[in-house]
Each structure stands twice: as C-alpha cells, then as structure tokens.
Design a protein that fits this description.
The complex is a heterodimer. Chain A is an alpha/beta fold. The radius of gyration of chain A is 22 Å and the shape is globular. In chain A, strand 5, helix 6 and strand 6 form a beta-alpha-beta unit. Chain A contains 16 helices and 15 strands. By secondary structure, chain B is an alpha+beta fold. Chain B has a single domain, classed as Sufe protein. Chain: A (Alpha-Beta Complex). Chain B contains six helices and three strands. In chain B, strands 1-2-3 form a three-stranded antiparallel beta sheet. In chain B, helix 1 runs antiparallel to helix 3, helix 2 packs across helix 3 and helix 3 runs parallel beside helix 6. Chain B is globular, with a radius of gyration of 14 Å. In chain B, about 35% of the residues are buried. The chains are: A alpha/beta, B alpha+beta.
Chain lengths: ~425, ~140
Amino acid sequence: MLNLRVICTLFNKLQNYMNVELIRSMFPALSRKVYGKDLVYFDNAATSQRVSTVIEEWNRLSTESNANIHRAVHRLADEATQAYEDARNAVKDFLNAEDRKEIIFTAGTTSAINLVAFSFGEAFVKEGDEVIVTEAEHHSNIVPWQLMCERKGAVLRVLPVDDYGHLKIEELDEILNERTRIVAVTHISNVLGIINPVKEIIEKCHSRNVPVLVDGAQGAVHCKVDVQDLDCDFYAFSGHKLYAATGTGVLYGKKKWLEMMPPYMGGGEMVGNVSFKKTTYAPLPMKFEAGTQNLASIPTLKQALDFVKLLRDKELEEYNNQIRDYLIEKLTSDQRIKVYGVPRGTNDEKIPLVSFAVNGVHHEDLALILDKMGIAVRSGQMCAEPLMDRFGVTGMLRVSIAPYNTMEEAEYFVKCLDRAIGMLM
Amino acid sequence: MTLLEAENSVIEEFSMYDEWLDKYEYLIELGKSLKDYPESAKTDDKLIKGCQSRVWLDYRIEDGKIYFNADSDAIITKGIISLLIGIYSGRTSQEIMSSDFSVVEKIGLKENLSPTRANGLVSMIEKIREIADRNA
C-alpha cells in the first residue's frame, strides 16, 4: 500500500494523468472480485470503501497505541490521546469551525442527531412547542425528533418536497412560527441527491430566532462545508461515508448551544467532580463524550479528511461530473425508468447519486441480478419511508458514485441494468 | 412423488445451472408460473415479515392435505416461494413436519442471498411449518 506522502508526490507529478487509477490503487477493496466478476461498488452513499491510509492508521493504533484516552499518563495512552485529538483538529479545519471545543465525536450521524434531539430538547423544548423536519429526511433525522416530541409533548411539523424532489422552501415561512424551537434539515437527501439551499433556510430560520441542525451525512462528502459561513447551529456527519472507519461520527455545535445543553450520557471522562450529592461536568467537548471512545477508529478521520483534500482537484471533479451526467442522461432518457430527484436547472444541483424505479419491476429483483453481475447498488426504502410514500413507491434502486469509480464502470452498469430489466420484464 | 423425492428433484434441477443468472432465469420462470393469487387475500395476516419484498401466503385444506397459494411483488422471491409450494403443497401436516427444509441450503439459495433476504426465506419456511403445525 502506498502512503499518503508518496501519493501526494505522485499526484503532483502526474496531475491530469491517470488520477482515477491512482486513487483506485489506494483502495484495497476495489481490486476484489464478487462471483468471479470485478467489483463495481456503487453503494457509496451508504458506506464508502476505506482508503489505505485509514486502514494503516487503524492498524497502527490497534497494534501499537491501544490504550484508553484522556486518562492514564503512560506512553501508549499519550499516543492514543494525541491521535484522537489530532483528528479533532482535522475536523475543526475541515468544517472551518471557530473552536475545537465545538467538535464532538459520536458513533455516527445518527448518534449525533440523537444527542442534539435529546439534550437540546431537555433544555429548550416544552409542551406545545414545535420542531420542523422535511419530507426528504433520512429516518435518522426524523425518529430522534419524534422521540423528543413524544417526551416533551411537542409537535413535529414537516416541510414538503415537490414532484422533482426539491424542498418547497417557500412554505417554510408558513410553518415557522413563534412555537418553533428548532429546524432539522438534510444538506443533501440520501435518496434524491439534490443539494438543498441550506444557507437560505438557515437565514430564514435565524431571522425568526430558530436554530438549525443540518444533517450532513451526504453533504460533508460532496460539498465544501464551512460552518461559519453557513452559520448553522449544528452539523452532523459520518466518517464511514468519506473513506474513514465506521463508528466515526461528528457533531459540530455552536459553543453557545452546547454549553447550555445538558449532557446526553453520563459516565467516563465527561465529569468534573463526582459526589453522591452533586456531580459537575467536564468542559466541552468532553462533556458530550461519555465512556470509552472509539479510539482506533476516530483518529482515522484525519487520514480520511487529508484524502478528501486530495480529491478537490479540478480534473478529478470534472471526470466525476461526467460520470454523474452520463448516468442522469442514460437513466432519465429510458422510458422504462423513473428517476427521483431531478435537477431543475443544471446537473450541478445534484451529487453523483441517482435513485430510480423501473415500471413493473421490483427494485429487489434488479438489485439481486446486478449483484450477481458484480455490481453493488442499494435497493429498498433507503431509510426514508416517508419519502417513498410521498412518491408512491415501496422502494427504489440507488447508484451512488465515489471519486474512485470510473466511466467504464458506469457504462457496464447501464448495460447490465438493461439486461436485468430484460430478464424481468 | 414423496416429499423427499420432490426435494431431491428440485435439488437436481437446480444443479443443472452453473451460473447464478441462469438460476435466476429459472426462478423468474417459476415465479411467473405461480397461479393467480386473489387480491382480496393480500391481507396483513397472510403477509410474511422479514422480506424486503412482500410475500403473502394462504392455504386451504382438502382431504387432510394442505394446499398453499402465495404471491409476492418481487418475481425472484415469487420463484422461490413457488419452488417451496411445489414441494410442500398437497401434503399432510405430518409429511411437512417431517421435512428438515434443508433443500434451500442444498441448492445454495440461502448462502447466496443477503442476510436480509435469507431472513425472508427463513420466515417463509417458518410460516409453512407453522401452518402445518396448526393443522396437525
């Protein structure tokens, strides 16, 4: 496996030349075969493959520096703590957060949103208050709020999407009112792939003094996120969708909110002083990091984010966009196929992710046949049942592309999809 | 044909196909051949949980034998259930209960389905067993 420095050097030397092949060489999983066929991995929006630098770091920490962080004074613990806190700095820079105390590590986006729903709810939501989510949300940005609303006697309001899969943000003004306590919106729906105008939404909400949580599970992968520029109050994302290990979630929260919110879980190093009469809590960020953290995986966020910086290359982005445009064109022009999440203007409104259904053919049948052709796609409700109901389908098929995917793979997919539909019709 | 013979014949038939796509073609044909299942019988009590696709399984008893009928919104799943019905329909509950249902493993279906789908398959078998047990 090549290390990151070597790759950087190669990159500079070979710019505009064979970049995708170089990237592929950094992902051991991509060279495997399934059912004797070359793997075509198009399920990146669920979990992306791990870059070799991430795997190396995970291995290094597991073999050399496996010790509990923030506690002991011995060498191994120092190394583990250093790696963990380096990752916090890397995330702070990646999101352009003002302060590293605003970066909380969690198990994933779901955990991060649950944390906010619970702790924010405890501090600020009362009976009869309202919380707004959108129709395009993943279950992870619906159910935590429902749980909180049930606990608090609050009401969940829903901002709808139009037939193209765009949020009807003009209706936000009607839904927002003096009882609204928080708005939770996805940066990019995991089904529709449309980049939502979150900055505009945040401005609207802030003008009514309502804070906003952005579910960035897809957004952090495909957009350059600047939390200060966005001015979002919370931003959550997962490392496993951007080439890091699993169990690497991030919650960014503005200090003013995090300081006012009570802890989510108790125990471990989240305390100041503990006594049976009164326990005080550790300052941010540790106040929200109870128990032993995922100490071999969280540090891999640093390697993953370094790698993401490498991907911000004009040529590479153009190549990726070509694949996206090719897939959108092929799938939308096929009369048998209905695509959900259609750009109204240019394709730049959409990430390289296309969800669709085929008339008279079950998504599961297609996914099964494609699997045997070596192609990994997602099928089903994609953790977005309300959105499936909105479009009147029981499920969809989704292809989601990463920068290591090639045009040849996209062409092979289109050919295989046609053959699979032929088998099933 | 005894139940054991029916199981063996399915295993033999399946072993003729080396390629997975051929096996799927076979299951798709089987799925298409499953006779009409009335819309009115697509009720929640006949719905089998655990599938990404939906499966409805109904039955009637005639002369002490259990006759199954089923439907699914996915054709490969329908093929699998059709295959099971071919073996277990028209049998007494004792015959059905005597089977170890290893046929699905022997034709390699279970191991080549994702756990989500394998669960659905297990649920189908459990439902057939449950019906046989209830009518013993």
